[in-house]
C-alpha cells in the first residue's frame, strides 16, 4: 500500500499492512466487529441536536457504533435477489465482490460514515420506489457522484471555501498551505525557512477527507486530471486536535444533518471540483510550487 496521505490514517485506524487482506466480505465483517469493540468509547451528537452553522460534538450522548449492516459476498447471492440499493435497504447487507478494490473501499467508507451512507441509500430507494429504476432521477445522479467522488472538507474558516469555489488554487494550495492539516504539507522550498521560525505555525483550518470510494481506488494509481467533488462542513478549532476516529464520528453526524437540512444533493447545481493531487501531501510532486502551474489540471474558473 502506498505510504502517503490519505491512506496513512486509514492504515492506522484499521491496523493494516496490506489492504488486500480485506478484499473479501467476511474480513470486512470481522473488521466491523473489531471497531465496535475498540471504539465503543467514542461519542457524538445525537440525531436532531445539531445546530446550523458550526456542528458541535458532545461526549457521552450516543455511540457511533450502531452500524447494523453486514457485508455479504456477492458471488453467494442470486441474480434475482434484487437491485443493489434495494438489497441494502431491505436486507441490511452490503453486496461485496471478492478481490475488488472498489468494493473494499466502499466497505471502509460504510464503516467510516455509516449514518451518511445509510441516508444516501434511503434516498436512492425513495426515488426508485417513486420513479422506478430508469431513468435515474437528478437526485440519484447527484448522490452517485458524491458517493463515488466526494471529498469532505472540514473547515474552521469558511473563507477557504470561497477561494476553492473560485478556483483560486495558488491561494489555497500555496499561500495558505500551512492551514492544511495533512502530513508534510510544506512546500519543499519552505521547509528550511519554517525550521528557522522557532516553531511558529498557524492554527490549522482545513482538513480533507475522502468520502467517494472511487477516489481511493484511483489514488492507488494517481494520474494528472484526477478530480473530486467537494462539500464543506464547518467545525470548531478543537476538531483538529481530535484523533482520526473521533473526527470521522463528528463528520459523519455533521454531514448527515447537513444533507438533511440543506437537501444539497437534490438540486441541479453541480458540486464544485477539487484537483485531488493538489491537496497537500496527497501527491509527492505537489511539494514543488511548479506543480501548480499546470492550468490544464488547475483550471481557472469560468467567467
Q: What can you see in these coordinates?
A:
The structure is a single chain. It contains 11 helices and 6 strands. Mean pLDDT is 81; it is low at 40-65 and 191-201. The strands form 2 sheets. A 4-stranded mixed sheet has the order 4-3-5-6. Strands 1-2 form a two-stranded parallel ribbon. Helix 3 links the parallel strand 1 (70-73) and strand 2 (93-96). The longest helix has 19 residues, at 244-262. The radius of gyration is 20 Å and the shape is globular. By secondary structure, it is α/β, with parallel strands linked by helices.
Which features characterize this protein?
303 residues, alpha/beta, four-stranded mixed beta sheet, two-stranded parallel sheet, 39% helix, globular
Break the fold down into its secondary structure elements and pairings:
Elements: H1 7-14, H2 25-38, E1 70-73, H3 84-91, E2 93-96, H4 101-112, H5 114-131, H6 138-149, E3 150-155, H7 159-165, H8 169-175, H9 191-195, E4 206-210, H10 213-219, E5 227-234, H11 244-262, E6 273-275
Parallel strand pairs: 1-2, 3-5
Antiparallel strand pairs: 3-4, 5-6
Amino acid at each position: 500500500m502506498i505510504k502517503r496521505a490519505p491512506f496513512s490514517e486509514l492504515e492506522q485506524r484499521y491496523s493494516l499492512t496490506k489492504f488486500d487482506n480485506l478484499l473479501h466480505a467476511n474480513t470486512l465483517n470481522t473488521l466491523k466487529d473489531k471497531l465496535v469493540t475498540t471504539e465503543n468509547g467514542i461519542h457524538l451528537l445525537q440525531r436532531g441536536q445539531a445546530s446550523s452553522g458550526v456542528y458541535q460534538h458532545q461526549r457521552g450522548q450516543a455511540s457511533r457504533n450502531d452500524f447494523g449492516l453486514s457485508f455479504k459476498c456477492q458471488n453467494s447471492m442470486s441474480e434475482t435477489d434484487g437491485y443493489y440499493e434495494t438489497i441494502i435497504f431491505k436486507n441490511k447487507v452490503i453486496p461485496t465482490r471478492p478481490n475488488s478494490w472498489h468494493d473494499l473501499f466502499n466497505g471502509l467508507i460504510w464503516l467510516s460514515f455509516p449514518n451518511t451512507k445509510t441516508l444516501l441509500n434511503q434516498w436512492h430507494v425513495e426515488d426508485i420506489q417513486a420513479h422506478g429504476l430508469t431513468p435515474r432521477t437528478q437526485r440519484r445522479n447527484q448522490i452517485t457522484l458524491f458517493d463515488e467522488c466526494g471529498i469532505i472538507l472540514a473547515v474552521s474558516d469558511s473563507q477557504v471555501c470561497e477561494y476553492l469555489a473560485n478556483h483560486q488554487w495558488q491561494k489555497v494550495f500555496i499561500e495558505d498551505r500551512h492551514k492544511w492539516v495533512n502530513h508534510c504539507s510544506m512546500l519543499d522550498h519552505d521547509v528550511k525557512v519554517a525550521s528557522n521560525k522557532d516553531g511558529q505555525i498557524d492554527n490549522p483550518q482545513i482538513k480533507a477527507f475522502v468520502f467517494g470510494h472511487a477516489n481511493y481506488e484511483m489514488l492507488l494509481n494517481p494520474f494528472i486530471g484526477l478530480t473530486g467533488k467537494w462539500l464543506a462542513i464547518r467545525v470548531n478549532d478543537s476538531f483538529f486536535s481530535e484523533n482520526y476516529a473521533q473526527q470521522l464520528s463528528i463528520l459523519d453526524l455533521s454531514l448527515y444533518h447537513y444533507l438533511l437540512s440543506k437537501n444539497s444533493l437534490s438540486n441541479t447545481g453541480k458540486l464544485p471540483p477539487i484537483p485531488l493531487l493538489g491537496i497537500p501531501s496527497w501527491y509527492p510532486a505537489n511539494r514543488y510550487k511548479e506543480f501548480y502551474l499546470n492550468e490544464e489540471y488547475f483550471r481557472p474558473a469560468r467567467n
